[in-house]
């Protein structure tokens, strides 16, 4: 039977390191110090804009796009970190753990959809853009939290019933 | 789905950990199966029956709720 792809167990630690460091930099360097440590750079892009992203009327193709840590690096690094945490093999990976993972995945998709519906109905303007922008991070975060809680309960219930 | 894995284990004098290792699952999974919290796959069911030297239906039995 073909097994679902999962990263090796060690990737979970790597994921935590990437996520925490990125989040700390964002919170302390960017939010706390009011974007003082947000840095700009150029990225090769298939679709880009003029000098000011989002506000330029001119769409360009195959250009060097102007971007920053907040708009590009932060979401990319957070997604990589959370994906490593969410989809790394457990030490005692077996079919029951896969079942727990599947249930957590379904739950987090439904919860994210509920939040998206509410966001669509209740949040407008530029702030809405940020909500949809970080929506995938929210889904991954929900999944990681739900899965880890269920695994903790699973391990704890087995300890209680230990012979 | 009901099962009498605990009884069969006692007959063979093997622990949950040993049974788990032979089947290739975690001890927690064996525990969950015994407590009827989890219905294992056909592969695991057949492995359990093989290890105990019994037929599948001698170890596992369907309940009313399984038909819903």
Walk me through what this model shows.
Chain A has a two-stranded antiparallel sheet. In chain A, helix 1 runs antiparallel to helix 2 (69-86). Chain A has 163 residues and is mainly α. Chain A is built from five helices and two strands. The model of chain A has no long low-confidence stretch (mean pLDDT 84). Chain A has helices at residues 11-32, 69-86, 95-122, 126-133, 135-160, and strands spanning 40-48, 60-68. The longest helix of chain A has 28 residues, at 95-122. Chain A folds into two domains: 1-89, no CATH class; 91-163, no CATH class. Chain A starts with 10 loop residues before the first helix and ends with a helix. Chain B is mostly helical. Chain B contains five helices and two strands, in the order E-H-H-H-H-H-E. In chain B, strands 1-2 form a two-stranded antiparallel ribbon. In chain B, helix 2 (16-23) crosses helix 3. Chain B is globular. The two termini of chain B are 12 Å apart. The interface between A and B is medium-sized, with 14 and 17 residues.
Silhouette of chain B: globular
Number of helices of chain A: 5
Q: End-to-end distance of chain A, in Å?
A: 32 Å
How is the biggest beta sheet of chain A arranged?
2 strands, antiparallel
Instruction: Let me know the largest β-sheet of chain B.
Output: 2 strands, antiparallel
């Amino acid at each position: 039977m073909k097994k679902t792809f999962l990263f090796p167990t060690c990737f979970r630690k790597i994921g935590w390191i990437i996520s925490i460091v990125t989040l700390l930099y964002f919170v302390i360097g960017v939010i706390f110090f009011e974007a003082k440590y947000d840095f700009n750079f150029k990225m090769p892009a298939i679709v880009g804009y003029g000098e000011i992203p989002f506000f330029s009327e001119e769409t360009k193709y195959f250009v060097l796009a102007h971007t920053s840590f907040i708009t590009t690096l932060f979401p990319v690094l957070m997604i990589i970190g959370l994906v490593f945490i969410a989809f790394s093999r457990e030490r005692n990976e077996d079919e029951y753990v896969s079942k727990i993972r599947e249930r957590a995945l379904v739950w987090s998709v439904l919860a994210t959809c509920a939040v998206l519906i509410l966001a669509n109905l209740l949040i407008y303007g530029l702030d809405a853009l940020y909500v949809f922008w970080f929506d995938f991070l929210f889904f991954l975060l929900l999944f990681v939290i739900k899965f880890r809680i269920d695994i903790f309960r699973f391990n704890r219930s087995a300890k209680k019933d230990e012979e | 789905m009901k099962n009498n894995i605990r009884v069969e284990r006692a007959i063979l004098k093997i622990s949950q950990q040993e049974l788990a290792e032979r089947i290739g699952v975690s001890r927690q999974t064996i525990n969950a199966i015994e407590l009827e919290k989890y219905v294992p796959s056909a592969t695991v069911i057949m492995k359990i029956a093989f290890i105990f030297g019994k037929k599948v239906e001698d170890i596992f039995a369907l309940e009313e709720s399984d038909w819903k």
